[in-house]
From TrEMBL:
The lineage of its organism: Eukaryota, Metazoa, Ecdysozoa, Tardigrada, Eutardigrada. It is an enzyme of class 2 (transferase). One of its GO terms (biological process) is error-prone translesion synthesis. Signal peptide: none annotated. This is DNA polymerase eta. It comes from Ramazzottius varieornatus. It catalyses: DNA(n) + a 2'-deoxyribonucleoside 5'-triphosphate = DNA(n+1) + diphosphate. The gene is RvY_16985.
Amino acid sequence: MKSNTGHRNDQGRVAEEGEEVCGEQLGAMENARKRCQAPSTSKSLMATEDDPYKIDPLIALIDMDCFYVQVELRLEPEWRGKPAIVVQYKTRHKGGGIIALSYEARERGVKRFHHADDAREVCPEVKVFVVPELHGKADLTRYRDAGAEVIRVMKKHFHCVERASVDEAFVDLTKEVKQLLPRYLSKELKLTPEALGSTCIAESHSVEAWLDQLYLKLEEDPEAFVASSVQLNNFALAIGAVLVNDLRQDIINVTEFHCSGGISYSKTLSKLACGLNKPRKQTVLPGNAVGPLFNKTNIIDVRMLGGKLGRSIIENLCISTMGELCKVEVPKLRQYFSEETARWLASLAVGIDNEPVQERDLPKSIGCSKNFLGKEALSTREQVKKWMEHFVSELSVRLKKDQAENNRSASLLTVSITYVKDPFKIKSGQSCSRCAPMTSYDNEAMVYDAFMVADRLLTSLGYRNGRYHYAVINLGISASKMRDGGFTASRIDSYFRGQKKKEVDDSQIFPGNKYSELKVKGRDASKIQLGKAKEVRERKGSITKYLNQASPRKDAQGGQASHHQQQKVRTEHMESKSDTETRLGQLLQATRSQRMGKVRRLFPARFTDEGGTRLGGRQRRRVPQ
DNA sequence: TATTATGACGCT
DNA sequence: CAGCGTCATA
């Protein structure tokens, strides 16, 4: 929780005794839990005439093994079976950083976080693949495309697939398994070790024994078996394992890529199961194995507990495993966490999470970014402009491909910046982001908008003698808010954009106030807040409205900032104004002089000197106690 | 200087 | 809702 003073939690109620122990930002830390609050899909537990068997939801996680390495090995198969790594930025620090390593390389002692040179030291024969570079940055296209290939295969098998990252996806198997259940129960189909292929059973030594046990119970008393949710769930799990095994084999057949899988009752459990036997194996995690498994599972290794919340649990409760967490009573948890989080943790500790698998096989945003560390840090307009051009070059290709393949287009362009006062002294800087409407996939337009947004923000933090006061150590742009179809006339801003290109005088293009109705997509014009209700001219540009609020939000930075928000004229900026205009004129040569009238408006006279200064000095929020 | 480059999502 | 923080993984 970033903006309160320690006496309110994230629900806004008054903190009870003990809650302050955790520090003011606990609520923010607990956000991770919120997405897991969907109600249980108890529908699947209901036995009806149509649906006589009640089973728990069945969820699988498919995770590609050292994916980037596999992608490279498919291109150069002669290296298969040998230690191999994928690094990016070969010419940089220690031969480039490792982002993927083969299991052969792991066996030879190569570690994550090693660099290429480290890897060669422990394993001289290691094959080093280098991520392609384009536009001066790492280009991950080939891995994204390979990931899409895999997803396509998965969609062929299952309706509900959630792309969780470039190389992993959750699958809800419940429906498919339910359909097959009667045929397996009736012996029309048979569960065999062969059908389960590379399956392991968590906390069990043999798939055969586990299956035998299952069938023994079924033979013994079929009616009792069907009536027992425990038995039925195990049976369903085995069917799920067959389906996932088939899927994994098909992925190999179609893509040549190998993967691991986890099959259980929730995202958390299937994710955990998937990691138990890697690579090229899948693991079933039955309900009765959760307890024993949790006894030896580190809290940090459980999904959603790998970050601050997990560390906070470990420190506050002086425990380290899920088994120990399971023994902690809810009231004890409530000493450190909110009511909801306490209950969520208690459920999780017994293996329950109700987060549904979302049916989504496409990314929701498409972006690119790059770090600029040390002397690479950007501090001039020229540098920022240049990199925006590079980013847009990459992004526009990806966006156009996405548009053609998926019949959708982005409506929001977001610029993200991390900046520091001194790139040699500060490790982590201030992050901020600003956005503008995305109205076309025209490179020039995107560069213009992205640079304007970035420059406006950085300049507001200080600009003198051709340099920003702050050095940019990370810069990125991202396209999001995908809408169906292409850019149409109904996309209001594309109308404005089109006019802009014609170089027609603004006052003729926007003669009346009727434009206010069109100004913001999908929003009631009456709700638009334009601060001082300026003339139409000031709001005409598609990004002007956004730029009007481009100054950093002090109150969002760390809570008490608002106390110091006196506004004051930044005299040094005023001095540099003419300089600003000149430089921009050159930088934005590609754009039209007609825009320059607007450019001037992008630099209002008033800036918050105090705020800008403090933003640089004030850094991270405190670490949880 | 030193993981980097992505991506999803919740809160205010 | 725009912007920030958290979590995650190649």
